[in-house]
Amino acid sequence: MTGSERGDSENDAPTVSRSGGRHSGPPADAAPHVTDADAADEVHTPTRALPIVQDGDDAGSEPTVAIQTIVHDSDDAGSERTVAIQTMSPDGTANDDVDDLATAPVAHEAPETPSDRTATLLQAARSWLNQDPDPETQAQLRALINAVDDGDTVALSNLHSRFDTRLAFGTAGLRGEISAGPNRMNRVLVSQAAAGLATYLRRHAAPGVTPSVVIGYDGRKNSHVFATDTAALMAGAGVRAILLPRLLPTPVLAFAVRHFDASCGVMVTASHNPPNDNGYKVYLGGANNGAQIVSPDDKAISDEILRVAADEHVLKLPRGAYETAEEDVVLAYIAATAGIAHTPRAQVNAVYTAMHGVGWDTTRRVLVKAGFDLPTLVDAQIAPDAAFPTVAFPNPEEPGAMNLAYETAREVSAELIIANDPDADRLAVAIPDLSSASGYRRLSGNEVGAILGWRAAALAGSDPDAVITEETGALACSIVSSPALHAVADTYGLRFVETLTGFKWVSRVPNLVYGFEEALGYLVNPETVRDKDGISAAVALLSLVSDLKSEGTTLVGYLELFSEKFGHFASGQISVRVSELSTIALVMTRLRESPPTHVGRIRVDEIDDFRWGLGDLPPSDVLRIRLTDGSRVMVRPSGTEPKLKVYIDTRSTVGTLVERRAAAQAALDELDRGMRALIA
Known about the structure:
By secondary structure, the protein is α/β, with parallel strands linked by helices. Helices cover 34% and strands 20% of the residues. Helix 7 (250-259) crosses helix 9.
């Protein structure tokens, strides 16, 4: 969806008139029960199943049978339930001429007792235990089984949480706590995933072509063993398997998929999740250009994994010899990434933290090759450490995560702080701020995304008067990211494309020049990788700050120039954690069924419902509320946590810089208060 097409495509969906604005409804031919293609990342609002009406064109179709259970009133306590059976004509009408309406007793089955359920659960747990090659999770599961046998109800509940469901494989791959059972990350689950993925790759390979996979891993607990299990099982299944030479950042794996022209890539990481989590990200080569999987590939891979889980014993799966890549692939990534910056015009006094992850060694080598002085390091956080001892949560966005970086920056009077998350696919940036207690202010992902987008647009050298076509370079961001990038694209004659949340969507935009996501994800070099890359983003930002310093200004001044040129954009976020996912569904349903006419004191102009898709976007459980003052509110369930998330964006283009800031912030505050009331 291009910048010039955006308004038209969104208005294609029928709207329902109401006081206070318009509310988008489903397309005329849309089925009411729609699931998001991004099933692994979205929490869906439950929908009611409606009758399926056959297409009127199917005149020769067989009659259908509607079966309705009739429950007797409570007064008839001794009566049996009956079933009404009625023949329906192809046009959906009842065929009363045929004596097909009858009642019959419902066959009763003996209900399963708690002891039966426990026995079934224990059988599943023992079966899992018999194929678990990990002594740690073996001991853990054996202790739980023994405790349940002894009547321990807490252990029984624990066992249910592990075996009643399974970690779903979707467009985010797998991610969860390392522990025993199918609803946790462990060697059994990873082995099943590897075997299922291998089958998928063989089935989709061209005739006579051996599929290939390149596998990377970070410094988290079990990352190396999950990676080597994957490599051996892939090789045993007839897939050429290449393991990266050592623990490395996620962007190096994304690069390696294209570097080796591999069919697939697997990265073992849980990014910035809690310490005891791990995960399994999958990329596809070929026509996918090394991007993360999306629908329908996720479903096809998941089906193969479930088949393996049902039919195979992982200890009996064949294993084979795999290759270990040479250091050349890392050197190639370093050269390509350093090449996005010109020789520094001025050196920058910066501080760097790897947040106990794997980013520093590769970042150091890139900076050296690009000609930058090395930053001062946050020594306590620079080496990989799976325990993440200095942070409660290894995410630069979390309160307190950057405290050691601020302390180090004060010691050296740093001009800039750059931080990677543990697998180095994200970048956090902080700048001096005397009004802050720490002396520094972390920029939001939207602020960094906007200024890197401005840099990218200026370097693209586009003509603002040129006619925009599908071949025009594109700036892209997710639907919950700041509209500031749209203003940049319009000014520079570039396409602007919005995607669903997730870099698997951003990275697939045709003719992409630059893309970002508000959650600290930036893609500044789409010709090198097709995923967010915190290392290349750091190089781009350092290059920008170096240029600004040579011109006598700072990043603070550049942000002010942005607000003067494009308008001042303000962003805020509300995140509500719930104990029951049904709470989120209820809130989303309430907003849909009783759409607000105002948010706070600001009038609603239009509400877009993404349940049936919108424009070029596939279905998603998202609401977009447009306000009459030009502000925007996005409401969606979190894809990874039991949270309802609200994203608020405002803009002011009138008056001085001070006046613009004040107006945008006032609207932001009003919308924040209003949305908190609406979702309470």
